[in-house]
Model the fold of this input.
Amino acid sequence: MAAEMFCFPPSFSAFAIAEKRTAVAEAGEPIQELSEQLLAARPDLKMGKQMQWLVCHIRARKPTEEVFDLLWQFLARGHRRLSVRRGEDDESLHAWIYKGDQAELDLASLPEGMRPAAAYEVLKPGRGQAGARAVARFARQAWFVGAKEITSNFRVGEEEEGDVDVEEFYAELRGKSQEQLHFDFWRARQRPPRKRDAKDRALLAGRSEINAVRRSQARRAEKRRLCSGIVFHCGSTGTKLAYPRDMPRLPGKEGETWDPKTRRDVTLRLAEYVETRLHFEKVLVLWGDAGMQKTPTAEAIANHLAENYGTNRYIKASSPDALRVAQLDFSPYVPIILEDWAADDVSQHGRSMSANYLKHLLDVKNGGQCRVRNTNVCFHPLQPKIVCVNDTPENWIRAVEGMSDSDEQPLKKRLLFLHVDTAVLAEEAVAAHERGLDALVEEGKRRRLERVRTLCGTAAEAETATGPGDASPAASTTTGGSSSPTLGLQRRRP
Done:
């Protein structure tokens, strides 16, 4: 039977056909007998239709090649392979038969000198891939190891690579585009199963998982992009101002709130709000004219609270509508700033403001839910809130639709109004901020000059390489007999 007409099935991809070959152990090489603990004894010497592998124990002193030739006369039909092995015992040897066809074999019909004394199956946990792996493991670790002499017309390949670490493998794929991944999948599918390496198998097995992780990462990247101007992290994207260092006059300023116990307005210093439990009970409303540094003040206070509670982030938006994309960053103790908030601006909120809606929105102690454009914005309990408005407290509350006297007092008990009537930031902090902006402007100018020099140098090199008479019109223009680079721009002739 020609070798190219036979191949092992995919389940036994570790095995490959080979020409008959005899190998003898070298001097000093350890020899070991085949352990019958790896085998299960058969009650007879028959191979049924579904049986593929059988190990036979034969008592003979003949060389393995001679025994192989005698057995092969009996086996050389159908899809079969044979290996004969001798261990330490010179009086006996073992033959391992592979039968890939549906014929039945009765080894008891062999001649007296070749008839097996016993037959065995390789111990395996079951059929399918688990059984195929057990047979391959027996071949690598027992049959082809420690033989004094062995003659075979099949061989077993090196042990396949182990499973790849999926996280490390995905890290290699992370930088590839979706188009490159499609080509990788295509190439892996084209390779025959026996030629696929561990990465090919991992790529094909985890295709849906790889795409799912990429989609998840894309959604997170999109969320980060949407939240980049809403969620601020202390020490990086957050404000560089520090409370109370950069606003020394602010902690002593007094604000007003309504006290439900005394049923009248009371005054509280800002320091009491920041340093006591009041920021878990009331919303701080900074009101005053534009330019009084209300927003930087709110950011400094929010940054201070976030650092105190270890959340290391605060959220700033212009309205509840803008907070929808940042809800995954909501948690207790994460401050929220609503700046330039007008109570009567429907376009800003996505709906008309009502007293009941405002009560839920401004409930710091218990949290709450607000319906905005068919979406619920859910606040956690104990999330400090700071609001910046340009109106007076009376005008801001009265702008709420349907506000009555019975609604006004329950709403005012949730609010601490602080009038910011003068610029509160220290001059040193303002100067440091301006110096930072000036440095950014200078850096932009420097980069522009470097870009211009690079382009001019490229144009001059091109002119030198082609010669003055061959300079292209796109690289230079001639005015009054002089040539000067124009960075690829030409003046239109009148």
About this structure: The longest strand covers residues 15-24. Confidence is low (pLDDT under 50) at residues 471-494. The longest helix spans residues 427-466.
